[in-house]
Amino acid sequence: MSWRKAALEVNENKNFEKLPSGSTAARLARHKLKRIGSQMERVIEEIKKKSGASRLEEIAKLFERAIYGNTPNVKDLNLYKGAVNRTKTCGGETGFSGKVAHAGKSLVLDFLCLCGKAEDGEPKVCGELVNVNDAGNWNTTTGMNGESNWNIIKGSCENMEFPKSCLAAEVLRAVADFESVLSKGGKTTAPVGKPGFHVYPGVFGICKYARERLSPPTVGCDGGKDYHSCICVYYGVASDWKNIQWLQHMKSALGLLEAAEATQLDITHLRMLQSRAEEIYDEAKMTLEHENPKWRSGSQSYYSCLFLPWALVI
């Protein structure tokens, strides 16, 4: 630890002149510095406890698994494979009830369910910037055209404006918003003031034309644009949401990221304590020089920012 090494060097090196220990100013300063030293010890112990949880590689791997699942190679067709059709891949094949086999395995697949091109789907369903019209229809069985669709989706996301500092707390709020949408049923509710339409918790996306016709969809998340279809991902009933794999990886990564951020705060606290120690030394030195103009400290070193305050505690 830097401050301990500094204190030892000050004690052993004759080039560092000590403040007179008998003066009132030195005694008061020594008392304050000892308290700061104790605080530093506690902060350093906290940093030690958290250092194991703040490994950036582990955080990065969890985020990677959330995005790509078990297939991190974007050139691998397996990354873009789902089930035999889009509805079975994205959910709702037998209606918006029961368990889901494929939805939630990776953010790549779920984004393709929401934005990827379908044979009779909207080319800009995710907005003007996400135009998959020329990407080719996403084949869930073979994975064909999955990469071209994903590249457009990913590129559009990268071109959007996001906050410059993305703290764990901000991402956790986004996760909470996602879970709130699932519990409310996404955008499958009827327009305001018009009854007769069901709410389907666990659906993330939109049943646009079914809403306009006030007719429950007869087909699940197949990406189509007629009133039978929805453009969505269905994650099942509430008890199934814990099985959304990318969400669980995301939460684990964010927990580690919070610990890493807390470590940075501890380091900042440590630096503040060091600065306060230097101030206490300077105050004591100035008081002694004022009381006794003949006394002057001759200690000089490019390490003085570490050494000088601890001259008082030894």
Description:
It is found in: Cell membrane. InterPro entries: Trypano_VSG_B_N_dom. VSG forms a coat on the surface of the parasite. The trypanosome evades the immune response of the host by expressing a series of antigenically distinct VSGs from an estimated 1000 VSG genes. One of its GO terms (cellular component) is side of membrane. The protein is mainly α. The protein has 2 domains: 2-54 and 257-312; 56-243, no CATH class. The protein has 10 helices and 2 strands; from the N terminus they run H-H-H-H-H-H-H-E-H-E-H-H. The protein has a two-stranded antiparallel sheet with strand order 1-2. Helix 3 packs antiparallel against helix 9. The longest helix has 47 residues, at 245-291. The relative contact order is 0.19.
Give a quick rundown of the structure.
The chain is an all-alpha fold and 314 residues long. 49% of the residues lie in helices and 3% in strands.
Provide the β-strand percentage band.
Answer: under 5%
Unreliable residue runs: 298-314
Quickly count the helices.
Answer: 10
- Number of strand segments: 2
* Strands side by side in the biggest sheet: 1-2
Distance between the termini: 16 Å
**What is the CA-based Rg, rounded?**
31 Å
| SS-based class | mainly alpha
Helix content: 40-55%
Q: Could you give the order of the helices and strands?
A: HHHHHHHEHEHH
Features:
elongated; two-stranded antiparallel sheet; single chain; 314 residues; mainly alpha; 2 domains; disordered C terminus
